[in-house]
Design the sequence.
């Protein structure tokens, strides 16, 4: 018994990162045999999902401390360590990633061209995302932060739509500029901390207590913010997203909106806020206003789109504005709502992107002008479309509602004016979502052709998502439970 | 020269005499394969000798050092020569060049680069520099039937001659003001005590710097680079881009790490050179439509970044610069090796149109090329990132925030043009024609470079520890 207790803990977190990486390599080795690649990718992502679920069930409870922590030396010259750490928020993001990735793999099933490459990139992206959510050393985090860009870049530039190359470059360079600002700020923080304490390290936990002057803190915070705001994206920096989402292949859009965008907000929570508490306090009002502007601007833009994929892209930006607003309110309920909304938005909008892809496969168009009347032609598909649209606009009882109401309640307590404004924004969401539903599934059918309804594979994608949406809407407590402690600690200005 | 000196010089002697022997044999026996094998073996023996035979003294005739740092670069350049010959095999056989001449020239160049990296005396520096430059004049134009190569050779010759002039005049001025050519004395005596001659000495150092600028293509002396890279065959280009520049930078590390008083007078000039070079390289590369020209401009940017490391003037900066040189040499060689391995009777793929869709014909080498280009750009996880990280880290520590920001801007621009190539390679609608499948030695060089890019990217500690122990 005593020997068992001293055994090192099984490296579950490394497994989460390494499994998809191994799967990607295996896929590349089986290039030329598409069927095997599909099976491999599915098996890998099922395994990752299994691990994530196991962690959720058996390691999901904690009082705001790290649930799991792995630490070993890496590049000792610069005090860079291999640290993976999981708290309640990371756990939720890991779970979301593993779940969405399953859907992405199923959605990519029909890809015909360069199958091995496509699945390998999807899995590589998953590894990068897991790393972003788990890494707890600045350089280690930066490694994943950048590495996750590469697969998305190729997914867009090789398998994307007509303007794919421009969109891919724009996506990469926009985010890159932000990342480089963050890199410089990281090194500067490292040196300031090293000069003060004599300990040169990039481990986030140790950098927390660096004494910074107001000017230093402001600049460093700005460096980090540049990376995360572009990625989130807040409104003046959002133009890359609509292009990238519109041009990306279906599975790519799913991962981009469901997961990659969340890394920006996650970075704010995990790095920017705790490292620079004073600068954060000064910046929160600006962040709140930016979020509100984004919420309205994106909703307004969404209302005027004809391309349904573009409409959903703007709706994503609008929702993320609400998430950021909740964070800016700096209040327990609002934060929990924001985090929940991050997850539910991933699922509902992800499902809508899947449905857009399915509609596109059947009708060869994404223009609202040319769509309509799908209710009569493909009732099951149209039902799911209606269901997820209603979930997305925040119908009570479905997933987004729980998150939105928590955000609004929390924000109201801290900043009543913001909450009232945000409420109007939510009404806007109803407007463009209903317009979407009206344009796509109601009205007269635009073609006489009979369209095939959902296949078994498509049911397998959509049904679990739908059930989850109902569950999250009616009883989100199990998903909020791991958050309580962590959020309380974060709001108090610390980390676990 | 005593026996002890000769023994300390052993690795270079092996390269030089081995080269001469192969040249002689090649005059009668014209079968290329054994000659090339002999050349590769000589280079490897030279590397082993540099690594395994401890030098009896640490300095050679007051001209060169035989310390760990010098030996490290001797090994590196000898291995580079071996790799360069492996990549050149098919080129020599297809173009029916004299294998003996080619092999001996590469070995001479390696010997010259090894000497340059170990120079501790301005005269030794000058001699070594001329030795390998002379070899390169011939190597670049070795294929007489190719007009581009002849043009490139001539350009390199003219620029080299100008640089030699600057160098010789600069050295003369330094001697006039300091009374010595030995390093570091030539620099240390440049204090105010040197009296009225001090400005001439400084001018001398400035002229030497210009000559160096020509050799490693710092802006505004970089304009020859794209033309020469484009004209030179890839196996030679690989050596030119890596060894010839790396050896000069290695010598510079030795020179500047010692040059106390001169330093303060030159620091502003170096700052400006670094900034202009990084920007000129990055912006120049943007409009290119030819991979070799792109690599040329990219090398300009890299040299600017290296200069930032040199500017830091502390062990941090020197370690970072040395790391950068090694990584840049390996990565660049990999890029040229991929180009050489794809060459066939149509020549080497150069123009972007020839690369379009090549990823579907030659997936492995295309993927490797993408990895190498991303390493040149500085993607985390590759050696190129650690190199840039180390340099920026050292520069921030020394307070060069402005240079770091310029370097960051140049990196963003670099990503843009490297990614364009990556996109071209995997452009789906334009399947390229089949190119050469490559030979085993070519694949070996590419594989070793790729492995090094990943290993030094993920575990840079190995190389940093080594460098830390060797720095002068």
Sequence:
């Amino acid at each position: 018994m005593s020997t068992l207790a001293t055994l090192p803990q099984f490296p579950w977190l490394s497994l989460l990162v390494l499994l998809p990486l191994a799967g990607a390599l295996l896929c590349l080795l089986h290039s030329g045999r598409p069927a095997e690649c599909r099976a491999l990718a599915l098996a890998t992502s099922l395994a990752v999902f299994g691990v994530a679920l196991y962690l959720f069930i058996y390691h999901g409870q904690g009082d705001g401390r790290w649930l799991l922590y792995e630490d070993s030396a890496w590049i000792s010259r610069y005090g860079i360590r291999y640290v993976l750490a999981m708290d309640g928020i990371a756990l939720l993001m890991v779970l979301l990633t593993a779940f969405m990735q399953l859907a992405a793999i199923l959605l990519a099933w029909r890809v015909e061209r360069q199958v091995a490459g496509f699945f390998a990139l999807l899995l590589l992206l998953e590894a990068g995302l897991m790393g972003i959510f788990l890494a707890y050393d600045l350089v280690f985090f930066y490694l994943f932060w950048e590495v996750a860009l590469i697969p998305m870049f190729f997914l867009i530039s090789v398998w994307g739509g007509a303007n794919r190359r421009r969109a891919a470059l724009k996506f990469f360079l926009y985010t890159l500029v932000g990342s480089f600002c963050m890199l410089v700020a990281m090194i500067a923080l490292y040196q300031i901390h090293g000069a003060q304490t004599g300990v040169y390290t990039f481990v986030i936990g140790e950098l927390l207590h660096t004494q910074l002057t107001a000017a230093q803190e402001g600049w460093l915070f700005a460096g980090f913010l540049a990376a995360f705001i572009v990625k989130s994206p807040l409104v003046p920096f959002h133009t890359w997203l609509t292009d990238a989402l519109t041009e990306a292949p279906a599975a790519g859009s799913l991962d981009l909106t469901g997961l990659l965008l969340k890394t920006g907000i996650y970075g704010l929570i995990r790095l920017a806020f705790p490292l620079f508490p004073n600068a954060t306090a000064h910046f929160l009002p600006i962040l709140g206003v930016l979020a509100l502007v984004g919420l309205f601007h994106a909703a307004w833009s969404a209302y005027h789109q004809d391309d349904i994929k573009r409409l959903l892209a703007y709706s994503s930006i609008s929702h993320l504005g609400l998430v950021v607003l909740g964070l800016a309110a700096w209040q327990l309920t609002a934060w929990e709502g924001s985090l929940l909304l991050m997850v539910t938005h991933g699922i509902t909008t992800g499902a809508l992107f899947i449905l857009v892809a399915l509609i596109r496969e059947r009708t060869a168009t994404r223009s609202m002008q040319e769509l309509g009347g799908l209710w009569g032609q493909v009732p099951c598909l149209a039902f799911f479309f209606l269901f997820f649209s209603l979930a997305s606009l925040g119908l009570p009882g479905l997933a987004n509602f729980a998150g939105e109401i928590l955000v609004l309640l929390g924000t109201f307590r801290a900043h009543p004016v913001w909450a009232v404004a945000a409420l109007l924004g939510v009404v806007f969401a109803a407007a463009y979502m209903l317009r979407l539903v009206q344009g796509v599934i109601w009205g007269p059918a635009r073609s006489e052709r009979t369209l095939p309804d959902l296949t078994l594979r498509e049911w397998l994608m959509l049904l679990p998502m739908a059930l989850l949406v109902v569950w999250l809407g009616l009883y989100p407590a199990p998903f909020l439970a791991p958050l309580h402690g962590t959020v309380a600690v974060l709001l108090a200005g610390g980390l676990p | 020269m005593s026996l002890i000196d000769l023994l300390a010089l052993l690795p270079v002697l092996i390269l030089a005499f081995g080269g001469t022997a192969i040249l002689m044999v090649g005059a009668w026996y014209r079968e290329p394969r054994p000659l090339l094998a002999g050349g590769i073996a000589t280079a490897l023996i030279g590397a082993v000798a540099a690594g395994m035979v401890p030098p009896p003294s640490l300095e050679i005739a007051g001209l060169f050092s035989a310390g760990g740092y010098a030996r490290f670069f001797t090994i590196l350049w000898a291995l580079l020569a071996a790799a360069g010959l492996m990549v050149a095999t098919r080129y020599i056989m297809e173009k029916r060049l004299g294998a003996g001449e080619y092999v001996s020239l590469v070995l001479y160049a390696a010997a010259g680069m090894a000497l340059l990296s170990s120079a501790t005396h301005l005269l030794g520096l000058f001699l070594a520099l001329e030795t390998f430059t002379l070899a390169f004049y011939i190597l670049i134009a070795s294929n007489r039937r190719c007009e581009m190569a002849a043009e490139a050779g001539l350009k390199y010759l003219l620029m080299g001659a100008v640089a030699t002039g600057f160098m010789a005049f600069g050295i003369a001025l330094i001697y006039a003001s300091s009374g010595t050519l030995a390093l570091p004395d030539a620099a240390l005596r440049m204090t105010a005590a040197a009296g009225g001659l001090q400005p001439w000495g400084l001018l001398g150092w400035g002229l030497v710097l210009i000559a160096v600028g020509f050799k490693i293509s710092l802006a505004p002396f970089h304009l020859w680079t794209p033309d020469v890279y484009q004209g030179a065959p890839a196996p030679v280009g690989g050596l030119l881009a890596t060894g010839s520049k790396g050896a000069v930078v290695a010598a510079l590390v030795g020179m500047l790490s010692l040059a106390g008083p001169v330093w303060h007078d030159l620091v502003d000039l170096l700052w400006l050179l670094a900034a202009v070079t990084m920007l000129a390289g990055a912006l120049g590369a943007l409009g290119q439509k030819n991979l070799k020209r792109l690599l040329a401009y990219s090398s300009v940017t890299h040299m600017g970044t290296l200069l930032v490391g040199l500017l830091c003037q502390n062990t941090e900066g020197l370690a970072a610069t040395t790391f950068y040189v090694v990584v840049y040499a390996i990565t660049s060689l990999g890029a040229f090796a991929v180009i050489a391995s794809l060459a066939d009777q149509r020549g080497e793929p150069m123009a972007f149109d020839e690369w379009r869709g090549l990823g579907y014909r030659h997936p492995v080498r295309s993927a490797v090329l993408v990895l190498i280009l991303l390493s040149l750009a500085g993607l985390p996880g590759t050696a190129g990132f650690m190199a840039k990280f180390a340099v920026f880290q050292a520069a921030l520590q020394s307070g060069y925030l402005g240079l770091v920001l310029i370097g960051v801007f140049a990196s963003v621009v670099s990503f843009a043009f490297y990614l364009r190539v990556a996109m071209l390679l995997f452009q789906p609608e334009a399947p390229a024609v089949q190119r050469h499948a490559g030979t085993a030695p070519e694949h070996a060089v590419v594989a070793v470079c790729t492995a090094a890019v990943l290993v030094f990217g993920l575990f840079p500690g190995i190389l940093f520890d080594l460098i830390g122990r060797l720095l002068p």
Q: What stands out?
A: The longest strand of chain A covers residues 68-75. The CA atoms of residues 351 and 462 of chain A lie 7 Å apart. The first helix of chain A runs from residue 2 to 6.
